[in-house]
């Protein structure tokens, strides 16, 4: 698995979009996604020479807008394309991180968690992990310890979604261990033995997540949620005992909405400000990391110092180890229908 992969997914039209008579403006072919700006006439150009269509190439373009289409990409296909690699990487000792990024209502939570009838990447990755653990332990090749934690970052504050009633759950502190990197002080960690244990925790955490109705989604997640699996393998390598620890962060980011599009005011507007601030920091961190990797690829070019602003948001600080270093990262950008042109956000 390459160290960073980017996928984009388009969901079916919802009632609101149908009522607004929204037009379908996205075409997908293999890894290419084309967006049409309907404001620009066919054969013409828009302001400052903008073209009517723009094509972007990603590692994967998932067409999930119409279940009847032969190109339809199901939850299972998304897992087979992206999730199986995450499981494989964890067994190979890599950290892995999957982000879902997109505007509110574009399908991030559906891709990550899914719904009751059709589970998303997080449950499928956990199931895949346990089915491989069961296979390996059957042959006595290794022993495993799996721990789960689940938190949300709401208005730049960390909250434990798997709280025990007696413990402190709000406003937990992020600290940095000299060897193990950033961590959340007092975050509860739960030892799990099988997929059923994980499912129980996931359901409990999802109930605790901060959601609200916005102008664009009736059940909008107002926080970034990070579901983390810490996976330790103990085995014998050339008759010597060894232990590998990998972390999988599965991140459902809060919606990257524009205030004018959602009509947000008051509390929702403040939330939106904090959400967008941390998403901008995420973009800045990724672009600084891209500059660093370009510098590394061109050793003869004079390097300017690159500062990676991990500490500018709680999200990037906590995921520091998963954004750079020994980690495989997947970014899934979700798209919703629009009847005007908008730019695709791409993190490579
Ligand atoms: N691929 C899909 N197929 C079918 N329905 C989908 C798909 N993606 C999203 N939906 C539906 O669209 C609605 C909005 O999706 P979802 O809640 O996942 O958006 P979101 O991006 O997480 O929004 P927010 O940032 O506001 O939490 C939900 O009702 C969901 O079931």
Automatic annotation (TrEMBL):
Listed SMART domains: KISc
PROSITE patterns for the chain: KINESIN_MOTOR_1 (PS00411), KINESIN_MOTOR_2 (PS50067)
Sorted UniProt keywords: ATP-binding, Microtubule, Motor protein, Nucleotide-binding
Keyword Nucleotide-binding: yes
Residues of the Kinesin motor domain: 3-348
Statement: the UniProt record of this protein carries the keyword Nucleotide-binding: yes
Binding site for ATP: 102-109
UniProt cross-references to InterPro entries, sorted A to Z: Kinesin_motor_CS, Kinesin_motor_dom, Kinesin_motor_dom_sf, P-loop_NTPase
Family listed: Belongs to the TRAFAC class myosin-kinesin ATPase superfamily. Kinesin family.
PANTHER family linked to this entry: KINESIN FAMILY MEMBER 16B, STAR-RELATED LIPID TRANSFER PROTEIN 9
Protein name: Kinesin-like protein
């Amino acid at each position: 698995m390459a160290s960073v992969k980017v996928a984009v997914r388009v969901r079916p039209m919802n009632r609101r979009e149908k009522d607004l008579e929204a037009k379908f403006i996205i075409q997908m072919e293999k890894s290419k996604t084309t967006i049409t700006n309907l404001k620009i006439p066919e054969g013409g150009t828009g302001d400052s020479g903008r073209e009517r269509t723009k094509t972007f190439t990603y590692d994967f373009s998932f067409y999930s807008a119409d279940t009847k289409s032969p190109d339809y990409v199901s939850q299972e296909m998304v897992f087979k394309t992206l999730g199986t690699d995450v499981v494989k990487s964890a067994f190979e000792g890599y950290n892995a991180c999957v982000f879902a990024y997109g505007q509110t209502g574009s399908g991030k939570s559906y891709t990550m968690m899914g719904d009751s009838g059709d589970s998303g990447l997080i449950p499928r990755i956990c199931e895949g992990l346990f089915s491989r653990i069961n296979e390996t332990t059957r042959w006595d090749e290794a022993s495993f310890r799996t721990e789960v934690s689940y938190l949300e970052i709401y208005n730049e504050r960390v909250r434990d979604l798997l709280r025990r009633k007696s413990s402190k759950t709000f406003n937990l502190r992020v600290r940095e261990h000299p060897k193990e990197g950033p961590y959340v002080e007092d975050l509860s960690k739960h030892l799990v033995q099988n997929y059923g244990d994980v499912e129980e925790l996931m359901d409990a955490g999802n109930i605790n997540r901060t959601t609200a109705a916005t102008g664009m989604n009736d059940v909008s997640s107002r926080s970034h949620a990070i579901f983390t699996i810490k996976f330790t393998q103990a085995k014998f390598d050339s008759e010597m005992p060894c232990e590998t620890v990998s972390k999988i962060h599965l991140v459902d980011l809060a919606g990257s909405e524009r205030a004018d599009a959602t009509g947000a005011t008051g509390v929702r507007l403040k939330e939106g400000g904090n959400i967008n601030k941390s998403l901008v920091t995420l973009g800045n961190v990724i672009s600084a990391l891209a500059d660093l990797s370009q510098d590394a690829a061109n050793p003869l070019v004079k390097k300017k110092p690159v500062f990676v602003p991990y500490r500018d948001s709680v999200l990037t600080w906590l995921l520091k180890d998963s954004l750079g270093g020994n980690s495989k990262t997947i970014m899934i950008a979700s798209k919703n229908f629009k009847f005007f042109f908008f730019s695709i956000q791409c993190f490579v």
